[in-house]
Write a structure and sequence with these properties.
Blueprint lengths: L1 E2 H13 L6 E5 L1 H7 L5 E2 L1 E6 L2 H13 L3 E3 L2 E4 L10 E4 L4 E6 L9 H5 L3 E5 L2 E5 L2 H8 L5 H13 L4 H14 L4 H15 L6 H21 L7 E4 L2
Parallel strand pairs: 2-10, 4-8
Antiparallel strand pairs: 1-3, 2-4, 5-7, 6-11, 7-8, 9-10
Helix pairs in contact: 5-6, 7-9, 8-9
Length: 234
């Protein structure tokens, strides 16, 4: 586990000082929540890159700084998305999860970029924080209990714009993340029932309607849905 000060030190003293050119990325998950003061520590430093060469350069810097790549990731992916599996770089103290364009079934696109809230510069390393709404939705695509805990805490501390949740769900569905509305519906329903989080009833109702419409269209076309997740091999 690392705190915000330790995360900043990694960004500034490990990555920022070794970059030869300007590199930008998006902080998500606990990494972004710490910038919002919605979390004190995080187990993983989660970063999304929009350019493969940027991800590869940061990966190389981490490797040269004592981080090793974790290879034992067993994924469940669409046929066309094997390249979207995260790159995991580990040290004894922490782990970096590096994503390219997509985070476990959530595509980064122009609207996501327009919602970025904060920009932090660490030399040539530019880290932008994902919006609370996008953090919440990304966590809805995972099966980890701690992501439920984080999401519940995020909703408690930050004023979530639920209209963004609906509009982004429609956008993700159009992009091709066909299982996204159902995953998010189940996720928010779980938060409401198990964590007593005040999720507006009309929001879950609309998410379910979007999911049902999408699956009806897929059924007519005779298409199947594969849900994107990842886990570690034991």
């Amino acid at each position: 586990m690392i705190n915000l000060e330790e995360q900043i030190s990694l960004f500034k003293n490990v990555i920022g000082t070794q970059l030869k050119r300007r590199v930008e990325c998006i902080a998500i998950g606990g990494s972004a929540m710490m910038f919002y003061q919605a979390k004190n520590t995080t187990k993983d430093v989660d970063l999304v890159f929009l350019k493969k060469e940027d991800l590869e350069e940061v990966k190389e810097i981490l490797f040269n700084s004592g981080f090793n790549e974790r290879k034992n990731i067993q994924g469940i992916f669409r046929e066309d998305e094997d390249s979207s599996k995260p790159v995991m770089m580990e040290s004894p103290e922490t782990r970096f999860d590096l994503f390219l364009d997509e985070v476990i079934g959530f595509k980064i696109h122009q609207s996501t970029i327009e919602r970025l809230r904060e920009v932090h510069e660490f030399g040539k390393f530019i880290v932008k924080a994902a919006s609370p709404e996008d953090i919440l939705m990304m966590k809805g695509c995972t099966e980890r209990l701690r992501d439920r805990d984080d999401a519940a805490e995020l909703v408690k501390r930050v004023n979530i714009d639920w209209k963004v949740i609906i509009s982004e769900t429609s956008a993700q569905t159009k992009i091709g993340m066909v299982a996204f509305p159902l995953l998010l519906y189940e996720f928010l329903t779980e938060l409401k029932e198990n964590y007593k989080i005040d999720v507006p009833k009309d929001i879950t109702k609309e998410l379910l309607a979007i999911a049902e419409k999408q699956f009806k269209e897929l059924k007519k076309k005779g298409q199947l849905v594969k849900v994107t997740k990842y886990r570690f091999k034991k």
